[in-house]
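Write out a sequence, fold above all:
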Amino acid sequence: MTKTVISTFSSRDSAERAVSDLRSKGFDKDISVLTKDAGQGDDMNRGDRDTTATMGGGSLTRGTTTGGILGGAAGLAASAGALAIPGIGPIVAIGPIAGLLSGAVTGGIAGGLIDWGIPEDRGHYFEDKVKQGNTLVSVRSDDKRVNEAAGVLRRFGSSDVEIH
């Protein structure tokens, strides 16, 4: 049975290190990252309105103020996208979550997470964390490896690892 390990990081650096470690353990196609678009004035904005977010040592996306994606994933997943989520604003979604959320934009992040077995109330919790500027990292895994993925996320400083 496939389960979802979901967590948030207050530090993008910690999220990047966790993603890198997960990739080295073979989870690369199952990792999703969701964060506010760096081109929208947060701490990653270098003032040129065209910034690069990195995860796991490789450039994942290049966000702009229009929310477009100019670059691709560095082996993390087949899909990456910029979305405008009502009440949150522009976000960058990388990995399987990008497709999940693109069809659920009107339901927000919480609505999209329901399809992965995340209860609605917990989905709202994680949506609020992203809204506050945290980076969401999730991993889809079978029962045999779910605790391994959760352990990696905890080791790199996630404050709220949950398995659903």
